[in-house]
């Protein structure tokens, strides 16, 4: 009999639950689920210490399809449920799976504060620019003019940029990827998992029933190199099939597209995801296709103390100073007297 | 004999049983502080005390206005009391607005002490007096009026300390307090101690307040106007150690005690709301007791973060008042569906909507009972007094953990802010609250079944970190036993019934309903929550007058105690006095088909004993 204890080596299939997956055929969620299952065995976190928390919507069925602990919450509240869980159990790795309606409409307040506090959560926001589960109303990320069941004449409702919201709220990690861009998505998920703090990941996800092809600009093999800028830390913003286009700031500090040949490389905008000042990350978040090529990858990754860590260490400091609480002394506090 | 009593030797000292005092003034006049100090010294002296703070919702309403009047009423007694008193014996009014809004509660012949310096033309106008009421013969002949130049005397007392006039004037509440201390032979030493402690870093303020207090005492001692002063001997409370406690304090103390009784950390999430915020304030100081507090971004985040913490294995509590509870509704439904332990504290206030934030009411019983979508039952408890909040908080936790269910604990603004003496319990005498988390997956190799129930229909509390027990829960209907999503028609009916039966099973784990008075007779008065004191006093008085009246005070509102139906049927009539329009009465009628009659008041104020005595008489004669 061997005395050594072997840690079990898990594979993606060990993270599959026994539940039948009920997303529509060819939904972008399948690819995201597959990539998440792929990275989970390599995080160094035991399966029983992983918790997936979700709200309501198609994306929020995600926890049922993973054999980890999971909470399928109520609409918009996943970040709050996850915050409570993480505060109570800092030893767990807590993921939040949400959508554009769940996180940015009904749950806007919670996502804002979870980001602001830098709670150590991994947030995956599946952005399909539509309400899918309720069968096709426009969402807070649907573009102006989009015709949906609730906007038959086209949406007149100004959309928001999830990453701009996140960076505006002080996100320490903000990234964007695409459901079927397997390698890129895997890289972004691994980066998010490794980030010590709130990791906010927007994933473009194709709802092939109600908003099919919304992200073709970023998935079309022939066009995506021209439409997207794949960010790399410390490198200049260069893109295009021919790698011949770049981004530089004009005299007004605004990004403009230039041909790389003919200008000095150092004149291009260099990507610094660790910059303390979020201005450049915010500017990148505002670059949206089709008005401009759109950045994909990690826009921002900075170190800042986590909320859950700060809560824990404050408790430890108070305990070190005051010692463990004496209940009898506490009850006997205030103005007391003896009746004989 | 106290120092004050020694100094007052030459003046006659009359012994009386109990006294009701009300301090009232502008909300910046420090009336809550004066009232609290008087309560403390009386409690320490050994009187039974009961208090009623009454303050405006505005932090600083316009100075001198009728809306800005803040009051603090207290009763102190040589016998056991349950209420702060119906009528006021001594009214201290610091300005015309306070006089106008409070004089109606002073009984004829009562003592009225006013700060005459505040009765200038502009203050009289703000109080909508066209003439000075202090010169009105209806007042001077009806009450024993003492016009005291408090502002001037306070300024004189603190002269030379370098205080601005504004700072000097802020000391006049201590002058008033000193005068009333003299009048009722109180020992000022605890207050002196408090002042020195409070202003330790500002010695000139400490000195100023001490001088103002002494000036007030001296004024009483040396003025011929006060012919007598009074003594209220200590009450004969059961022997033991006591402290003064408010309902919100008691809740916080219970939660700080819970980690020792459960072996688990407590997680409390709240969002600022009157009158529940003090719970969050007090708990956030107790970080070395195994208590984590979280000021959430909103009420919904408070309840859902608590649900997250409960899923993680914490003893989870969220607290609020009516408007916040309304927001929490969907989250509470999630806790019912996921069958996680959670206590929801509702410190009730006047409603609907924003209603009367600082005033008391008990109009959230139906909200707690039914304020969620779907058939969504949960246990509901209600504390009956400030000290009882401690007991019922632990009781709510016991039921939540024992039955894997959210539990409502109802208190109200009256007992949350009101104070009473509380016999201090010992940790060793409190019952442990057993918590069980399964540690192993089923031995037969089957997957873990999160909705496999025990004989009480309670599901296991399996928590993250336990290998082999990975499972998913959520708000969608689930199959019995496995907990998997299930839209099956028969299963939904089955699960709806199971959830209701589980809550009904709590009846076997709570005490039978006690009755004060005869076991059968003409009238049973049924009350719940913070009206206990007034109703108990009234029913006792009715029996003393020879009436056949009993009192059943409910602390368990869902499920009702198992014997309640039998109790109700043992009397000819049932009267249900409530500070709402008849919510418990509706539940009793619906549940027991009993023709209960109501006595209902919704004025933001507790019952007066006299109005209950009269309602009892009416019910008996009806």
CATH second-level architecture of the largest domain in chain B: 3-Layer(aba) Sandwich
Intertermini distance of chain B: 53 Å
What is the top-level CATH class of the largest domain in chain B?
Alpha Beta
CATH homologous superfamily of the largest domain in chain B, by name?
A: Pyruvate-ferredoxin oxidoreductase, PFOR, domain III
Query: Percent of residues of chain B in helical segments?
Result: 25-40%
Q: How far apart are the termini of chain A? A: 69 Å
Decide which structural class fits the backbone of chain B: alpha/beta
How is the main sheet of chain A built? Answer: 8 strands, mixed
Beta-strand portion of chain A reads 15-25%
Number of strands of chain A: 12
Largest sheet of chain B: 7 strands, mixed
How many DSSP H or I helices of chain A?
Answer: 11
- pLDDT < 50 runs, ≥5 residues of chain A: none
The CATH topology of the largest domain in chain B corresponds to Pyruvate-ferredoxin Oxidoreductase, domain 3
What is the fold-level CATH name, i.e. the topology of the domain at 12-220 and 297-316 in chain A?
Answer: Rossmann fold
Write a concise synopsis of the structure shown.
The complex is a heterodimer of chains A (340) and B (622). Chain A is an alpha/beta fold.
Structure explained in plain terms:
The complex is a heterodimer of chains A (340) and B (622). The longest helix of chain A has 16 residues, at 307-322. The mean pLDDT of chain A is 95. Chain A is built from eleven helices and twelve strands. In chain A, strand 8 (238-239) and strand 9 (245-249) form a beta hairpin. Chain A has helices at 28-39, 78-88, 100-106, 108-117, 162-168, 182-194, 216-219, 224-227, 279-286, 307-322, 327-331, and strands at residues 50-54, 69-72, 93-99, 121-127, 173-178, 199-204, 228-230, 238-239, 245-249, 255-259, 294-301, 336-339. Chain A has 340 residues and is α/β, with parallel strands linked by helices. Chain A has a domain at 12-220 and 297-316: Thiamin diphosphate (ThDP)-binding fold, Pyr/PP domains (Rossmann fold), CATH 3.40.50. Chain B is α/β, with parallel strands linked by helices and 622 residues long. Chain B folds into three domains: 3-231, Pyruvate-ferredoxin oxidoreductase, PFOR, domain III (Pyruvate-ferredoxin Oxidoreductase, domain 3); 243-429, Thiamin diphosphate (ThDP)-binding fold, Pyr/PP domains (Rossmann fold); 521-621, Rossmann fold (3-Layer(aba) Sandwich), CATH 3.40.50.920. The longest helix of chain B has 20 residues, at 203-222. The two termini of chain B are 53 Å apart. The interface between A and B is large, with 62 and 73 residues.
């Amino acid at each position: 009999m061997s005395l050594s204890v072997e840690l079990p080596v898990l594979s993606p299939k060990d993270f599959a639950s026994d539940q039948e997956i009920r997303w529509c055929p060819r939904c972008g969620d399948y690819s995201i689920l597959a990539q998440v299952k792929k990275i989970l065995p390599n995080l160094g976190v035991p399966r029983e210490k992983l918790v997936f928390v979700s709200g309501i919507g198609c994306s929020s069925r995600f926890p049922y399809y993973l054999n980890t602990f999971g909470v399928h919450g109520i609409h918009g509240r996943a970040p709050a449920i996850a915050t409570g869980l993480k505060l109570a159990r800092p030893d767990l790795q807590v993921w939040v799976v949400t959508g554009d309606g769940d996180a940015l409409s009904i749950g806007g307040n919670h996502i804002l504060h979870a980001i602001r506090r830098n709670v150590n959560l991994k947030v995956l926001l599946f952005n399909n620019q539509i309400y899918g589960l309720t069968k096709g109303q426009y969402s807070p990320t649907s573009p102006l003019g989009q015709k949906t069941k609730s906007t038959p004449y086209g949406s007149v409702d100004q959309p928001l940029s999830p990453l701009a919201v996140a960076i505006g709220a002080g996100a320490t990690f903000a990234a964007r990827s695409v459901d079927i861009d397997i390698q890129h998505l895997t890289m972004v998920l691994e980066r998010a998992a490794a980030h010590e703090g709130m990791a906010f990941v927007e994933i473009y996800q194709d709802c092939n029933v109600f908003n099919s092809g919304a992200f073709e600009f970023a998935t079309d093999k022939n066009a995506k190199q021209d439409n997207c800028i794949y960010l790399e830390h410390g490198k200049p913003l260069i893109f295009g099939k021919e790698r011949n286009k770049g981004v530089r700031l004009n005299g007004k500090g605004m990004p403009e597209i230039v041909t790389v040949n003919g200008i000095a490389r150092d004149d291009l905008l260099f990507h610094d995801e660790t910059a303390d000042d979020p201005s450049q990350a915010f500017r990148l978040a505002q670059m949206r296709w089709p008005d401009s090529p759109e950045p994909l990858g990690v826009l921002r990754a900075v170190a800042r103390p986590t909320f859950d860590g700060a809560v824990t260490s404050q408790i430890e400091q108070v305990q070190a100073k005051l010692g463990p609480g004496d209940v009898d002394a506490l009850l006997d506090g205030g103005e007391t007297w003896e009746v004989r | 004999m106290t120092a004050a009593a020694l100094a007052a030797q030459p003046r006659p000292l009359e012994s009386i049983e109990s006294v009701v005092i009300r301090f009232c003034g502008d909300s910046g006049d420090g009336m809550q502080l004066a009232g609290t100090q008087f309560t403390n010294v009386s409690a320490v002296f050994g009187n039974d005390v009961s208090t009623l703070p009454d303050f405006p919702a505005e932090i600083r309403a316009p100075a001198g206005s009728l809306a800005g009047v803040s009051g603090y009423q207290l009763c102190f007694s040589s016998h056991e009391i349950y209420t702060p008193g119906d009528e006021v014996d001594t009214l201290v009014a610091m300005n015309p607005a306070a006089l106008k809004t409070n004089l109606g509660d002073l009984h004829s012949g009562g003592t009225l002490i006013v700060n005459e310096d505040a009765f200038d033309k502009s203050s009289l106008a703000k109080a909508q007096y066209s003439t000075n009421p202090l010169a009105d013969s209806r007042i001077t002949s009806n009450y024993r009026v003492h016009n005291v130049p408090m502002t001037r005397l306070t300024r004189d007392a603190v002269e030379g300390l370098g205080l601005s006039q504004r700072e000097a004037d802020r000391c006049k509440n201590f002058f008033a307090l000193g005068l009333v201390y003299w009048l009722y032979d109180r020992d000022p030493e605890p207050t002196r101690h408090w002042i020195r402690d409070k202003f330790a870093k500002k010695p000139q303020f400490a000195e100023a307040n001490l001088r103002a207090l002494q000036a007030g005492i001296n004024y009483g001692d040396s003025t011929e106007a006060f012919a007598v002063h009074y003594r209220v001997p200590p009450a004969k409370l059961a022997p033991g150690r006591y402290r003064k406690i408010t309902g919100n304090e008691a809740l916080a103390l219970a939660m700080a005690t819970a980690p020792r009784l459960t072996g688990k950390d407590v997680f409390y999430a709240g969002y600022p709301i009157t009158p529940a915020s003090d719970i969050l304030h007090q708990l956030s100081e107790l970080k070395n007791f195994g208590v984590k507090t979280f000021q959430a971004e909103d009420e919904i985040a408070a309840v859902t973060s608590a649900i997250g913490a409960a899923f993680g294995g914490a003893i989870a509590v969220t607290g609020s008042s009516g408007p916040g509870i309304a927001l929490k509704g969907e989250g509470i439904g999630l806790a019912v569906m996921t069958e996680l332990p959670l206590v929801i504290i509702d410190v009730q206030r006047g409603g609907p909507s924003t209603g009367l934030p600082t005033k008391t009411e008990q109009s959230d019983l139906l909200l707690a009972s039914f304020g969620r979508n779907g058939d969504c039952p949960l246990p509901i408890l209600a504390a009956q007094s400030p000290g009882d909040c401690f007991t019922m908080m632990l009781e709510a936790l016991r039921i939540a953990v024992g039955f894997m269910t959210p539990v409502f604990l109802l208190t109200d603004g009256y007992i949350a802010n009101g104070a009473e003496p509380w016999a201090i319990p010992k940790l060793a005498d409190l019952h442990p609250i057993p918590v069980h988390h399964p540690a192993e997956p089923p031995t037969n190799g089957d997957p873990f079944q999160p909705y496999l129930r025990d004989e009480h229909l309670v599901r296991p509390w399996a928590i993250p970190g336990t290998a082999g027990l990975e499972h998913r829960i959520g708000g969608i209907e689930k199959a019995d036993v496995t907990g998997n999503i299930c839209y099956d028609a028969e299963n939904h009916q089955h699960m709806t019934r199971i959830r209701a039966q589980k809550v009904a099973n709590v009846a076997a784990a709570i005490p039978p309903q006690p009755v004060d008075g005869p076991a059968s007779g003409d009238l049973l008065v049924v009350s719940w929550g913070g009206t206990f004191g007034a109703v108990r006093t009234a029913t006792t008085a009715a029996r003393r007058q020879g009436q056949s009246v009993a009192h059943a005070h409910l602390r368990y509102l869902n499920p009702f105690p198992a014997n309640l139906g039998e109790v109700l049927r043992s009397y000819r009539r049932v009267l249900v006095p409530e500070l709402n329009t008849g919510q418990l009465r509706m539940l009793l009628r619906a549940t027991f088909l009993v023709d209960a009659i109501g006595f209902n008041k919704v004025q933001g104020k507790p019952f007066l004993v006299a109005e209950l005595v009269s309602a009892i008489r009416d019910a008996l004669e009806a």
